[in-house]
Structures are given as C-alpha cells and as structure tokens.
Amino acid sequence: MKFKPLRDRVFVKFSSEDEKTAGGLFIPDTAKEKPQRGTVIAVGPGRVTDDGKRQPMDVKVGDTILFDKYSGSKIKIDDEEYLIIKEEDILGIVE
Asked: How far apart are CA 66 and CA 25, in angstroms?
C-alpha cells in the first residue's frame, strides 16, 4: 500500500527498540516504552504560509528523526505500526 501525507505531515516507521537490557534481561512488550525515534517513509509537500507560498519540508525520506513522545496518530498497515506526525512535532534529525 502506498501512502502520501498531506501538507506538513510526515509518515514515520518506528525504529525497533532493543529487547534486551545492558545486563542481558529481556524486556516484555508490556514494559516497553513508546519509541521516540523513527525513519521517515514519506513527507507531504509542506505547509502553505499566510501569503500563499508553500514552505518546503526540512526532513526528507530516509531521515532518522526524534519526535515528541505523545505526538501524532498511530496507524497499522500490513501488521506494521507507523506514525503520522506534523513537522512541528519533530525534535531533530539524527546524523
């Protein structure tokens, strides 16, 4: 399935978290914290400013990003979890 976000929205795939602690203990799914890191799968064309011009997005497909913990809408496509967030909820790009 293809998905194209609108305006200043970003389609993100969660990065997998380590299931083991540094001490070697396995973390059950119920105890895992919601990830705040992901990979950009698709971006919208950008938001329209008050004067009618389109402001381009700062992120691009393939970027690894950090985002606010409780931001966006979680969706499930083909048994994979994704997140749709606004560009303003992105904290930064991991280099």
From this structure: 26
